[in-house]
Structure to design on (95 residues):
């Protein structure tokens, strides 16, 4: 893999660290989905290897999940194991 691709992977990977209390598991999930899609794209697109496609897809998936504004709230666990988050009015929303 070329140095340019590795540089892009590292730079975007570092910039997609947890943003505003994002969970690392959610971002890693996006990276996994992106890697799978990128590997398929790398197998289909001429001139792009499977590894390069997977790396680019992983970075893209992680970045998209990190910048997702819909899920920008901190999750908590209740005493009974339920998962919830609190909106700006102080109301709990269980998932």
């Amino acid at each position: 893999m070329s140095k340019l691709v590795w540089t892009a992977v590292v730079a975007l990977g570092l910039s997609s660290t947890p943003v505003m209390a994002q969970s690392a598991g959610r971002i890693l999930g996006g990276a996994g989905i992106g890697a799978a899609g990128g590997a398929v794209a790398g197998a289909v697109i001429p001139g792009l290897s499977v590894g390069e496609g997977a790396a680019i897809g992983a970075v893209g998936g992680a970045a998209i999940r990190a910048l997702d504004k819909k899920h920008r709230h901190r999750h908590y666990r209740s005493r009974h194991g339920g998962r919830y988050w609190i909106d700006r009015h102080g109301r709990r929303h269980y998932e």
Summary: Residues 24-44 form the longest helix (21 residues). Residues 19 and 67 are 7 Å apart (CA to CA). Confidence is low (pLDDT under 50) at residues 16-21. Helices lie at 3-15, 24-44, 50-66.
